[in-house]
């Protein structure tokens, strides 16, 4: 009985203590004919917990936010926050701030000050569904953690060189953020992560920038389901540990030293279920330890993978190397990387062995490269003669009289069939569906033409 | 006739000298091409900004670096003959390292060395006055620091 009374009291106390706080938070409306004409005013007067609803229109002036408030556009993208052209457009200086649905533009362009459209310096911000234009950095997370960055569309500067652009999302000493479904174009690096751990990057898209994702000294990061198109490199993973990347697509990174992805001094990391399509080099790796690369597809790249002799303790198994001009490039003969695991190697489209015992493994072993590829690695200019009769002749001579010793890779258990994994299956389904659709079109066109022709002939004869 | 012959021979001589002169290196720093140039030390692409550095070898080969720290690290590990160049922080003008003035700062350079270079002492001093946390350093000090860093690993 007594217990019940105490519980009752506790309940009532909570109610009364909780209530006033609730009552204080208010909704403030900004727009033409609303209580506030200017967003700056509303922000200045807002208290913790307030929601500022902003109606379509242009709102000028930089904003500094010192309360945990929510700024929300009533119609997505139609409330425009236009900065002073100096400093950050929005600076968040209090935990728990939400910015949702705005178009934000005209931030400063001072590289020394890291000017950004949205600068976040306290924990737990939500930056959602915004469009960011005409700014040096898009969103800058500085020495604060646990943010959610979702659904933003950030466009940098098409005409500027990389050194004059800022990064789309810059994550600096900032941990455990969730970065999801954002789109970045014409920035320097799409998502730049420095000294920041345990971040999750899901389903983002980076196009026409320098690096899609760029990790520097950042551990335990994960990125999944992202798409990288036409960047200098899709991902640059450098000086980091325990990075896990799955289900990403790296496409059309083309140039002298362009990579779908590259590892530089990386440890204990894993890449699986990724697709590398039409890149100059699918994956490049230097000075990295214990990199696990499995269930990926390297399709139609100039070079599928370049694995330098400086790497060690790595394993590459159950990947598909399909129709790359050069499947693999190695610069020295080493045994520091395993090309199979559990008696399963990789699938190589240029493999010519047979499956003797019906276990899906071919015999003999797969030997990478040929004399001409070796020459290309050593003297890049010889690439000019790729697929030429001279090259073919060299390859043939080398097959019959293998006298030139050269570094190559041996896969002891080459697979007879491509490995199934999600990103590859999806691509295959699409191309099959595309094939079927094309076939259907051709058939119907032919039917229509013959039908029309016959109809015309009949009419002519009857006339 | 004789003069014509002489002038022809002279022309050939001049052409040959020009060709040989063109080949004999001493080429100096090369412009940065962001689409092509990759740091010889860390494989990152080199931005055409104030942090880029170059190592012009006696044989004419030019190595490029994205950060002054990367150049120092490379020179530490490789024994080649040549000249090192850095860029003025404001004008991006190329300067030989023995003629440059350096500062260690909190400026965000590509590889986080914070190293920036200046053409004149006055520019360096002005920078140190304005930037919090910036202090003067020398090329010898930078190379020594790179050696110490290497020894730590």
Structural features, described:
The complex is a heterodimer of chains A (463) and B (153). With 463 residues, chain A is α/β, with parallel strands linked by helices. In chain A, 41% of the residues are buried. Chain B is built from 4 helices and 7 strands; from the N terminus they run αββαββββαβα. Chain B has helices at 2-23, 68-77, 121-130, 139-152, and strands at 53-57, 62-65, 82-87, 94-96, 101-104, 115-118, 135-137. The longest helix of chain B has 22 residues, at 2-23. Chain B is globular and about 70 Å long. The chains are: A alpha/beta (463), B alpha+beta (153). Chains A and B meet through strand 25 of A and loops of B.
Short summary:
The complex is a heterodimer of chains A (463) and B (153). Chain A has 463 residues and is an alpha/beta fold.
Q: Structural class of the secondary structure composition of chain A?
A: alpha/beta
Strand content of chain B: 15-25%
- Per CATH, the class of the domain at 16-319 in chain A reads Mainly Beta
Rounded radius of gyration of chain A (Å): 29 Å
Strands of chain A, total number:
41
Strand order of the largest sheet of chain B: 2-1-3-4
Structural class assignment of chain B:
alpha+beta
Give the helices and strands of chain B as they follow along the chain.
HEEHEEEEHEH
**Strand count of chain B:** 7
Q: Look at the structure and give the mean pLDDT of chain B.
A: 86
In terms of quaternary structure, what is this? heterodimer
By CATH, the architecture of the domain at 16-319 in chain A is named 3 Solenoid
Walk across the major sheet of chain A and give the strand order: 1-2-5-8-11-14-17-20-23-26-29-32-35-38
Q: Major sheet of chain A, described briefly?
A: 14 strands, parallel
**Which bin fits the share of residues in helices of chain B?**
25-40%
| SS element count, helices of chain A | 5
Inertia-based shape of chain B: globular
